[in-house]
Design brief:
It comes from Methylophilus luteus. It is a single chain. The chain is built from 13 helices and no strands. The chain is mainly α. Helix 1 runs antiparallel to helix 10.
Amino acid sequence: MPETPASPLHWRILILLLLPPLFWAGNFIAGRAISGAVPPVALSLIRWSIAGLCLLPFALKPFLRDRAHYLSYRWHILGTAITGVAAFNLLVYWGLHTTSATNGIILNSFIPFLVAIFGFLFYRQQLTSSQLLGLLVSLCGVLLVVTHGELQVLLTLAFAEGDVIIFLAMVFWALYTLWVKEIPATINRSGLMLCQVMIALLLLLPLYLWESQTSAVHLDQPHTLWILAYIGIFPSVIALLAYSRAVTLVGSVRASVFIHAMPIFGSILSTLLLGEAFHWYQFLGMLTIFTGIWLANSTRRSTASTH
């Protein structure tokens, strides 16, 4: 499916595009915070169980109404359930046990490039010059934030087992972004997500039974329950529905470049919730990232691009 031609973003679409990186930035912080209390598979299973319960009241009716259409797109639905719901989050939580937040953010920033590369290789999607420039500029902003403005930090980074795991998660998310665009917008997104969550839970359950033989879940601290509630609602239901809808409206590349806003939101959350100072490199990184996002969504198009 060709990419949506560049057009100005309505403020409602802009909110759809900004909510996912905001809530996913919180998900990285939350997942890291309770990594010692809740093992990866259990965390994924609890997360999507909460999400499924939240979806039921308003998603069950469209789920039943559209169930006949699911068979027509069964492979895309199965693929998005495996990549974007089950595998991506499981691999991120698993990787966060053995890698730093800085490395995780850097690896997360490769998603827009993976989306562009896979789109070109498998769907013949061409990048406009504005999109390519925007991707590169926003990536520079990400690196500025996560390295604290010091090149030496980037040069001395060491990558561990967890980095490989998280990079694999990014590959899965890029595939999810491309595949979800091929599911028609006429299929209700809340009902579709309920279907995807149910598939993911079926896949995660046997993995949880295997994991429970060696790792226990500790829910004795109140803050753990609050974190699980956040993870199950905001980055799961609200963010995923918003992202799926945004991809349908503006295309995979234009939607994925907003993921570069995650380190900015992470810095803001750290300042507001943890009382950390807001530094010059964060402000400059914010300006650079949003400049890149603006360039990637510019209405100027390369004459060599095809849609």
